[in-house]
Specification:
Blueprint (H helix, E strand, L loop, with lengths): L2 H13 L3 H8 L5 H11 L1 E7 L5 E11 L2 E6 L4 H8 L2 E8 L2 E14 L4 H10 L13 E12 L1
Antiparallel strand pairs: 1-2, 1-4, 2-3, 3-6, 4-5, 5-6
């Protein structure tokens, strides 16, 4: 995904939203570049998936936005990773006192972090800590194929 594609997703989501959502998200809404800056400042998100019993599961993850693509982590052995392997449907939220981003979509596996050196270097450069993931972290990276996104 690119920033223009992220902007199209924001615009399409708002155009197809309910009257209440349009009112809430059209005032002070963020454009794609602002969403990217916000996600990269927060660098954390909650990802919701569905467990094998049909019940919801929420996990706190590291998250970033690289050229419009929303990327998040999934740790080995986690319920999140098991749920993603069974069903890629996700909801992702990034929140802070001044802004919120909510996304619904499909998680797309990018691969093990250790095999994605170029991407990981870009994500490290976005972090105010200088690292996106802890040293020696061996989890998976996922991107969200956005179906709906709202930002305020």
């Amino acid at each position: 995904m690119s920033l223009p594609e992220l902007q199209r997703a924001l615009d399409a989501s708002l155009a197809g939203a309910s009257a209440l959502s349009k009112r809430l998200f059209s005032r002070g809404g963020m454009d794609a570049a602002e969403v990217q800056r916000f996600v990269n400042r927060v660098m954390g998100a909650t990802v919701a998936t569905v467990g094998p019993d049909g019940r919801p599961h929420a996990a706190l993850v590291l998250a970033a936005c690289d050229d419009g693509a929303l990327i998040f982590t999934a740790s080995p052995g986690s319920a999140l990773l098991r749920n993603l392997k069974r069903s890629p449907a996700v909801a992702l939220t990034v929140t802070a006192p001044e802004h919120d981003v909510t996304v619904r979509g499909q998680a797309e596996r990018l691969g093990p972090a250790g095999e994605l050196d170029e991407l990981l270097e870009r994500l490290h450069s976005l972090s105010k800590r200088g690292r996106f993931t802890p040293p020696e972290w061996v989890g998976e990276l996922y991107a969200v194929k956005i179906e709906k996104i709202f930002a305020s």
